[in-house]
Design a protein that fits this description.
With 644 residues, the chain is an alpha+beta fold. It folds into 3 domains: 2-250, Immunoglobulin-like (Sandwich), CATH 2.60.40; 264-432, C8orf32 fold, CATH 3.10.620; 439-643, Jelly Rolls, CATH 2.60.120.1130. 17% of the residues lie in helices and 40% in strands. The protein has an 8-stranded mixed beta sheet with strand order 6-5-9-2-1-11-14-13. Strands 26-27-25-24-31-35-34-33 form an 8-stranded mixed beta sheet. Strand 33 (581-585) and strand 34 (590-599) form a beta hairpin.
Length: 644
């Protein structure tokens, strides 16, 4: 090791000699960029990243990592000014913290033909806590408006060599030039993988550094199109063009190889041995008294499970922070608020005190991105839920949502695979995190139509599964707000509402509204036109593009049924009704049924959309798109009445 330390000065000298010229220089703004009013390759862009340059390097002897970034952006539309708000995630563990130095941030405006610079002030920079291991450094560039060019650069210093910076080539606005350089000493075995559909120019060079080689990598892409999110997709971080790094080993000569990335098995072992995870579940004995109090006289395991689950979710409020660990559960119960880790580890600990074998499940939420199983990194995980075996069946529990029943995970957890930790066997297995319930809504209307086109009667809703959860969550904000969101832009007058089962979590939501609808039917001479689906039909196909790059992920299977009975006005007869029709997806993946029947002065209408799978791959997209096209067109057809 002494020999290696003696080469540190040589390392610095040689490394600097191989440094390339930066693609842009801070403060040198071309006049044509300041005069730009639209970006020719994408005239719809609200802003364009003119240059985004990053360089990361490891100092092997100091155990330090330095990442430098320089970004320049042109603001083209009012909504583009949001790019002046910058956030940098900073990791911390114990007394060690990542930090930002050498921050420069300047806004350039063209005023009377001259460039006016406005530099950032110190009070525009602040640090905000994100969760137990991350803070966010935030800063906002000043005097930003349409036409501005903003520019910032900083150095990101870290002692955590395993957190080698990834690089995102693609963003929600186009990028004219993006370049990333990584200097990685040969002591460090770094796994890396590309994602997305853009291929950067790449070159690499091994630079001798005396006792070792420095591996120099460079990736460049010009004229990167904006990333366009598509309907029903998970986190954009799963699909944007990006390069990801994971430090696998450190191999100093003469020393044993140090495994950094390790394996999922080792990572699970670390979690189970942690004071904030495994030991927090088996510890926190102050909870034992409360468990005994709650379950006194209760012998059935099912009832015990329900009682403890209800207690935790009704006692502790989720602060919207996703986390895997819990700290100081006494404080959490005193404050009655905590992260997802705090709440679900508290639930696991109480279940443990009640005699249940708790098998935690580590996962990544949909917003965080799916887990790549080939890269065993803790950073891929941001959430934990509980599970227990009961009567030979695995029961899933998440106490962060007060309106979700037992054995239903929140939709944010339905994201590919999770890590099921089998506590008794001290091992783990991968488990598919799929919806345990459909999202189901039935709209049932019984209405009388007048000659003036007014509809009066009752509209009832029955919502189950994830639709029931969304409904209860909205209702908790207040009945008035709930009713307004239900009506939306429709011209409904609701005279009376009955909410029957909002407080019964294990049942479907049922609600009935007495309504007068003035603008749904249209009168033209002797004819009345009416769409029987009461505005609950889908009118716009979310799948417009011919070819889709990403899977369609609905989250859960779903059903949408609209049942309508219309009593026609006296003196009118049915002139035309849409033909009955069934559209089906192959292999039972879904179907749509339209059925309209006339009996006397009553028209009975049924529209039923059933989608039996949550995930459609890119190859299945064309048939899904055509299915939507067909049933949406069918739902747009109207009933025609004619005066006798």
């Amino acid at each position: 090791m002494r020999y290696l330390l003696a080469t540190v000065l040589l390392f610095g000298a040689i490394l600097s000699s191989y440094s390339q010229k930066d693609p842009v220089k801070f403060g040198e703004i071309p006049m044509e960029d300041l005069q730009m009013t639209t970006y020719a390759p994408d005239t719809s862009a609200a802003a364009v990243i003119l240059a985004d340059f990053g360089e990361a390097r490891i100092s092997p002897f100091q155990g330090k990592m330095l990442f430098e970034r320089h970004t320049r952006i042109k603001i083209l539309k009012p909504e583009g000014t949001s790019w002046a708000d910058v956030e940098v995630m900073l990791y911390h563990n114990g007394s060690a913290d990542e930090n930002i130095t050498n921050l420069k941030a300047v806004t350039y405006n063209l005023e009377n033909g001259k460039i006016v610079k406005t530099e950032i002030s110190k009070d525009a920079v602040f640090l905000e806590k994100f969760n137990k291991n991350y803070n966010i450094k935030k800063f906002t560039l000043p005097n930003v408006k349409v036409g501005s060019v903003i520019e910032y650069s900083y150095k990101h210093n870290s002692d955590f060599l395993a957190n080698f910076p990834n690089w995102q080539f693609q963003h929600k606005i186009p990028t004219r030039l993006t370049e990333y350089r990584a200097f990685i000493p040969s002591f460090f075995v770094m796994e890396r993988y590309m994602q997305g559909y853009l291929a950067p120019q790449y070159d690499t060079k091994n630079v001798p550094q005396g006792s070792y080689e420095d591996k120099r990598h460079r990736w460049v892409i010009e004229n990167v199109p904006a990333f366009k999110p598509e309907p029903y997709m998970t986190s954009e971080s799963d699909y944007v063009s990006k390069i990801n790094f994971a430090l696998a080993y450190i191999n100093f000569p003469g020393e044993p190889s140090r495994e950094i990335m390790g394996t999922w098995k080792r990572l699970v072992g670390t979690f189970m041995g942690s004071e904030a995870f495994g030991k927090a579940i088996t510890g926190n004995n102050f909870l034992k008294k409360k468990v005994e109090e709650l379950t006194a006289g209760v012998t059935e395991p099912e009832k015990k499970l329900q009682i403890i689950f209800d207690y935790v979710k009704n006692t502790l409020k989720w602060n919207e922070i996703c986390d895997t660990e819990a700290y100081q559960l006494k404080d959490v119960f005193e404050k009655k608020i905590g992260s997802s880790g705090d709440i679900n580890i508290a639930l696991a600990s109480m279940l443990d005190k009640a005699g249940f074998v708790v098998d935690p499940i580590l996962l990544s939420t949909r917003e965080h991105g799916f887990i790549r199983t080939q890269v065993p990194m803790e950073s891929q995980i941001n959430y934990v839920v509980c599970s227990v075996m009961l009567n030979g069946k695995r029961i899933f529990l998440d106490a962060t949502e007060p309106f979700i029943p037992l054995n239903i995970l929140p939709e944010r957890c339905l994201n590919g695979q999770g890590i099921l930790i089998l506590s008794n066997e001290k091992t783990f297995e991968w488990i598919n995190l799929e919806a345990m319930s459909k999202a189901k809504t039935v709209v049932n209307s019984d209405l009388a139509l007048s000659a003036s086109g007014e509809l009066t009667g009752k509209v009832s809703f029955t919502r189950d599964g994830y639709d029931a959860h969304r409904s209860r969550k909205k209702f908790a904000e207040g009945q008035e707000a709930y009713t307004k969101s239900l009506v939306g832009s429709r011209s409904w007058e609701i005279s009376k509402s009955d909410f029957q089962t909002m407080d019964q979590i294990n049942t479907a939501v049922k609600e009935v509204h007495e309504v007068t609808i003035a603008d749904h039917a249209s009168v033209a001479g002797d004819l009345i036109y009416v769409n029987p689906w009461m505005g609950f039909n889908i009118t716009d196909n979310p799948f417009k593009i011919d070819n889709r790059l990403y899977p369609v992920d609905f989250g859960s299977p779903f059903e949408r049924s609209i049942l309508t009975k219309i009593t026609i006005p006296e003196g009118y007869a049915v002139e035309e009704v849409p033909a009955n029709k069934i559209f089906a997806l192959p292999n039972g993946m879904g179907r749509y049924v339209c059925s309209i029947n006339v009996l006397g002065n009553t028209i009975s209408c049924t529209s039923m959309l059933i989608v039996n799978k949550a995930l459609f791959l890119q190859a299945e997209y064309p048939i899904l798109r055509e299915f939507y096209t067909q049933f949406i067109a069918k739902q747009g057809e109207q009933i025609v009445l004619k005066k006798k």
